[in-house]
Write a structure and sequence with these properties.
The structure is a single chain. By secondary structure, the chain is α+β, with helices and mostly antiparallel strands. It has one domain. The chain contains 5 helices and 4 strands; from the N terminus they run H-H-E-E-E-E-H-H-H. It has a two-stranded antiparallel ribbon with strand order 1-2. The chain has a two-stranded antiparallel ribbon with strand order 3-4. It is globular. It starts with about 20 loop residues before the first helix and ends with a helix. Bound molecules: iron/sulfur cluster (SF4). Iron/sulfur cluster binds next to helix 5.
Length: about 100
């Protein structure tokens, strides 16, 4: 896995499911938008099961912050995104991640 190279295909940003935020993720992203955390979460987040903060999604299931040029908040992206696929992945990941396919 040390040889993994991201192909920037953005497939991971278009998967079903949610990007969950840690409190640190929310603070970092809020700062990047020049917002306080309350305003950031009110604008860009969902509260799942009344306690899990996750990013809203676009109507096609892709991440709210996925733009034409890829991730629009790359420098401030959440830990869940930073950690994929070296720290975590699923069996399904091998079917869509160009970097995992090309190992
Ligand atoms: S799916 Fe894999 S190769 Fe494509 S952007 Fe995500 S990590 Fe990179």
């Amino acid at each position: 896995m040390a040889s993994f190279r991201c192909r920037r295909c953005s497939a991971c940003c278009r998967q079903p499911g949610f990007v969950y935020l840690t409190p640190q993720d929310a603070e970092r992203l809020a700062a990047a938008f020049g917002m306080d955390v309350y305003k950031f979460t009110e604008t860009y987040c969902l509260l799942l099961d009344r306690r899990h903060l996750a990013l809203k999604k676009q109507t096609d299931e892709s991440c709210l912050f996925l733009g034409k040029e890829g991730c629009s908040v790359y420098e401030s992206r959440p830990a869940q995104c930073r950690d994929f696929p070296l720290q975590w992945k699923t069996e399904r990941s091998f079917g869509y991640c160009e970097g995992l396919k090309g190992r």
